[in-house]
Write a structure and sequence with these properties.
alpha/beta, nine-stranded mixed sheet, six-stranded parallel sheet, binds 6-O-phosphono-beta-D-glucopyranose
Length: 481
Amino acid sequence: MQDMTFVLFGATGDLAQRKLFPALYNLYLDGKIPDTISIVGLGRNYFSNEVFQSKVEKALRAYSRRDIQTSGLQRFLTKFRYCAFDATDKESYQRLNELIENREKELDIPENRFFYLSVAPSLVDVITSNLHTSGVSQTKGWKRLIVEKPFGSDLASAQQLNKKLSKTFSEEEIYRIDHYLGKPMVQNLETLVLANPALESLLNHNQIANIQITASETVGVETRADYYDKAGAIRDMVQNHLLQLVMMTALDLPKKITAEEIRVNKMEIMKSIRPILKENVYQNVVRGQYESGEIFDNPVVGYKKEQGVDSSSKNDTYFAARLYIDNPSWSGIPFYIRTGKRMNQKSTRIVIEFKNKVKESFPIEGITPNLLILEISPDESISLRVNMKDPSSNRFDPVYINFSTNSEGLPEAYELLLFDAMLGNATFFANWKEVELSWKWIQPLLEAYQEDMLPLYPYPAGSSGPEEASQLLLSDQFKWW
Ligand code: BG6
């Protein structure tokens, strides 16, 4: 890995404390960042380098997945410098430029500059255009940009944002982060079939009945009403995370291919997802909003009573849809996707349901469909559900062949993604075409929402979502797993 400067916009924010500092530290412990790296944190308030370093240390103690090792800690912290910064003020960029240049000289490192934008979406294009005009991003080495989601709030705004970013950074220099692509089990999907040839005969058209992708959470809107009440589940989870999971599941690669080929493949899949026309949205999409209920025996308020939420809000906290990928591998196989806040469990998983040929030819009591279940988080496992006969009753019962890894020792998503981006490997980042195509797919849904063409179904907090989402599958003779 080449020496570089890592510039973090939003260094006093929540993401930096919870994810980014711990990720950098754990990479450091593994010797995966250059020893001469210069890390510059930017935030609005003034404080000294020492105070900033102690904030970094505090974040590591609170959130690092591994214990802090006192021996290397000071050495790690000395890599950090702080610069008080106002994104709209020209002088701030000059100060930043000086700081970066001084450190480059001091450490004798090349002008390789990595900019990480962990800031409000409205600041993204202001910062990138100022980076350009101030000269900060005009380096003799390489430059790269990591942008957090949301990337736009609809098709037009995403296109506009991309146009602005591309004035300063080329597509190869932009890393659009989607932390679901950093989850180890999701990364596993790329080589699942390649590494397990036996699965190739299972994971095909003739065997699969449907695919279900679930990302359910028990948390509510938390302290993010400001953003979430405008975004809803559709922008917060579906346009990015769930559609990325669809693309990764459908990749189905029997051979090793390059990062570029993976991107092209994903784009082709996204292109082949059949559009849901505005007038057909109600047949294929279910949206919901949580009402009061109980989470793990504790009473919780409904969405409209959450702090900062408009009491007449029509925002969705639940989304389910049926979609089809019209390509030779997946044609005719429904993909069902769903996500919701304040559900009865925290689980992100992909369930592949196999055709139940036995049932069709001769019914046997207790026979249920075989399932391949890929648990993505918080637990990681792959299990296969099969039917076993109970000799005493002659009935079949489902049993699970389960392979789980110890996820405690695994690197976190941000760690894997930061490492890749520092190496210049964009395999697990969303490229512009994927993002644009996913907004194109979402756009008619947003319009149907806006024109009140789709009911917003209530569901009690702590449940598995609105009943109508079960109907969506029942109409195809399936059920959610
Ligand atoms: C984020 C969303 O991108 O993903 C949050 O903004 C959501 O609303 C989170 O809670 C879920 O991530 P994970 O990794 O906990 O499934």
